[in-house]
Amino acid sequence: AQSVTQPDIHITVSEGASLELRCNYSYGATPYLFWYVQSPGQGLQLLLKYFSGDTLVQGIKGFEAEFKRSQSSFNLRKPSVHWSDAAEYFCAVAYNYGQNFVFGPGTRLSVLP
Amino acid sequence: SQTIHQWPATLVQPVGSPLSLECTVEGTSNPNLYWYRQAAGRGLQLLFYSVGIGQISSEVPQNLSASRPQDRQFILSSKKLLLSDSGFYLCAWSLYAAEKLFFGSGTQLSVL
Asked: Tens of pLDDT along A50-59?
């Protein structure tokens, strides 16, 4: 079965520090990969997605992610974190010709001033 | 532009009572529609998805059901709520397969 793991439940970084959120997936074919961000009590907003091509994808709010097929990973990065980045981050895989999405358990990001 | 409406925003229901959560999408046709549940401190669990009117696929067997009576309307229902049904319910849509999901603002359901 398809699955997505995010090993870090909670990460705390200082404002201005770099950030990397890890995501690993289990899927037999070429995946469609996504990162979403969720503010408390709100729906999810897409940060970026990977379908094919360049394995380094750029997203909104200064985020980027790199697809590594050999490691089945799609880690999210940001060179300098802002206090407004504090939120829950979800990695997701789309399967069944893209009709179904499987989400990871999420990583909660806290930002220290 | 496309918008998604989900209501109510919060709901407190007693155990054994019925449930009806509604989601509508505007500004597009024949969207793929999804219901997700997010339990406290956990990720999103796909409950149902629909690729067309009357076409519902269930990912997880439970006491919830979904219906799609119109192209852009998706309803989540239960005849008798359980305590374990508490959670944050999110409706979402996508226009094409593997295209990004657009999420509603969610419904916080508390079953007491």
From this structure: 988 889 999 9
